[in-house]
Amino acid sequence: MQPVERPLSPHLQIYRLPMLALLSITHRATGVALSAATVLLVYWLMALAAGPESYATAQSIFGSVPGLLVLFGLSWALFYHLCNGIRHLAWDIGYGLEVETADATGWMVVIASVVMTLVTWTLAFMMGGFA
Amino acid sequence: MSMRSPLAHVRGLGSAKEGTHHFWWQRVTAIALVPLTIWFVAIVIAVIGADYETARATIAHPVSAAMMLAFIAATFHHAQSGLQVVIEDYIHIEWLKITLLLTVKFLAVIFGLLSALAVVRIAVGG
């Protein structure tokens, strides 16, 4: 008897994720990263509440090279999750579910997140941040 | 034929016993976070180059403090509801799953309270 040819799951080591799948897992990854980063929000607010000295310490940590790199990455993650989240909300009410539309809005999300990150950091340095 | 009793059917709570509660509040907090996140980024940019007194006074303003508290509430609710889904999707060892779920929920409450208390201290000058 001929065995039934069942469909196989993607072989993850060699399977190239389609762009839409990559964007989807990135939404999760940025969500998890941002959740972890809330500890920085707690620290920043507590330092501001505690007084000038602890705030200066926080500012020097955030303003260091590793600090700036982490914040830069987090700002992109935040904008990506924000833009892609709006895309998800549109899907929830039934808009943009066609593959071509989802592809197009996916690229819009990627471009918007990069532009928003660059604009934010330009503004931050113009405001004299981390001087 | 449905195996569900008429009462269960009319309640519409399903096997999770809470219906669309989780889904709905994840969306409510998501919608709230769209303007709140943009506001948060704007105020961080505004205070980032400022000295301590200015930064503190900016956050202490009643409108800023209220917005910050709303941002904190929405953020931690949204984070724990998203992490819950990630944990439920990937962790299939029951004790580990429950442990992680409880850890995430408790940490979200503690972090939310710590940051909210900090905002209150900034606002009332304690």
Report the total helices of chain B: 5
Share of helix of chain B, binned: over 70%
Unreliable segments of 5+ consecutive residues of chain A: none
Q: Mind summarizing the main beta sheet of chain A?
A: none
**Helix and strand run of chain B:** HHHHH
Cα end-to-end separation of chain A: 76 Å
Fraction of helical residues of chain A: over 70%
Mean pLDDT of chain B: 94
The global form of chain B is elongated
Content-based structural category of chain B = mainly alpha
Largest interface, chains and sizes: A-B, 33 and 35 residues
The number of helical segments of chain A is: 4
Spans of at least 5 consecutive residues with low confidence of chain B: none
Largest β-sheet summary of chain B: none
Rg over CA atoms of chain A: 20 Å
| Oligomeric state, counting identical vs distinct chains | heterodimer
Identify the overall geometry of chain A: elongated
Tally of strands of chain B: 0
Compact summary:
Chain A is an all-alpha fold and 131 residues long. Chain A is 76% helix and 0% strand.
